[in-house]
Specification:
transmembrane transporter activity, MetI-like, flat, ArtM/GltK/GlnP/TcyL/YhdX-like, cell membrane
């Protein structure tokens, strides 16, 4: 009995093989539908004279609007710094073995999360009605509350203390995400609890803390608009002053909204790259950047199609 060996397939010298991705017509159809509806809505908004786009263009770079933006950014930064510092402190207190410390931290968090931030702002603004003179329990100190608690100070206290309660839970979740075995190993080596928290736990917890902190920062930026009720000249209040004089309410609200949208977009981009940086130690392959995703979407050939094979199978 004889067997025949099938002839081997030979590769023609210089032959090229192109790997083409599978086509997805449904994606293009859905994209076309979304773009069509989006275009119709955009055209309706831009061609509607009631929006007052000429007024929007005139006041978009108004000096008072620019000053309001600076106040908004300053309030956001200061309040987030205060909130982050308080969040770390009270998160560590919540995890303390001392029941009194744990209870005090829980009471703070429960109070500031359980009452609206607008109520807290109004409370701090009217603090002089309760304590006209602030002594801090120290003899010889008599501070006039009306001069000490200015609208800007009340805004910082209200936003910062409220944010500290939310940041506390975010930081606590990040700390609990770290394997407890590392804490036990640090204790076995004689490292103090504070050193363990500062040098071992918190750096690893940042991977969990950063994403919600970015969301809280964006939320804080928009929450600063609440301080307009206590006459702090931030972005929304500056717009309100203008439309109270010109009666151009809708265009001025559009001006404020466009600036809020621009700033939040910049913060979102910064948050994305910050998350990507802290994810380097835990992910083998980092998620692609928006530019990489866009390039991949419009590419039609796989990377293999760019390689020409020699007769021996290697790159030519």
């Amino acid at each position: 009995m004889t067997t025949t060996t099938p002839p081997l397939l030979t590769r023609t010298p210089g032959a090229q093989y192109t790997v083409v991705k599978a086509r997805h017509p449904g994606r293009w159809v859905s994209a076309a539908v979304i773009l069509t509806f989006g275009g119709l809505i955009l055209n309706s908004v831009l061609t509607n004279p009631n929006f007052g786009w000429d007024v929007v263009e005139r006041y978009l770079t108004e000096v008072s609007i620019g000053q309001g933006i600076l106040v908004t950014l300053g309030l956001t930064a200061i309040s987030m710094i205060i909130g982050t510092v308080l969040g770390v402190i009270f998160a560590v207190m919540r995890l303390s073995k001392n029941p009194v410390v744990r209870t005090a931290a829980f009471a703070y968090i429960n109070f500031f999360r359980g009452t609206p931030v607008l109520v807290q702002l109004l409370f701090w603004f009217n603090l002089a009605a309760l304590y006209p003179v602030i002594t801090l329990g120290i003899p010889g100190i008599n501070l006039d509350a009306n001069q000490l608690i200015t609208p800007l100070t009340a805004a910082i206290l209200g936003l910062g203390l409220n944010q500290g309660a939310y940041m506390s839970e975010i930081v606590r979740a990040g700390i609990l995400s770290v394997d407890n075995g590392q804490v036990e190993a640090a204790e076995a080596l004689g490292i103090t609890r504070m050193q363990t928290m500062r040098r071992i736990v918190l750096p690893q917890a940042m991977r969990v803390i950063i994403p919600p902190t970015g969301n809280e920062t964006i939320g804080m930026l928009k929450s600063t608009s609440l301080v307009s009720v206590i006459a702090v000249p931030e972005l929304l209040y500056s717009s309100q002053v203008i439309y109270a004089r010109t009666f151009e309410t809708v265009p001025m609200l559009i001006v404020a909204s466009l600036w809020y949208l621009l700033i939040t977009s910049i913060l979102t981009i910064g948050q994305y790259y910050l998350e990507r940086r802290f994810a380097r130690g835990t992910q083998r392959n980092l998620p692609p950047t928006p530019l990489q995703q866009l390039k991949k979407f419009f590419s039609t050939h796989d990377a293999l199609s760019l390689k020409s094979l020699s007769p021996k199978g290697g790159p030519r």
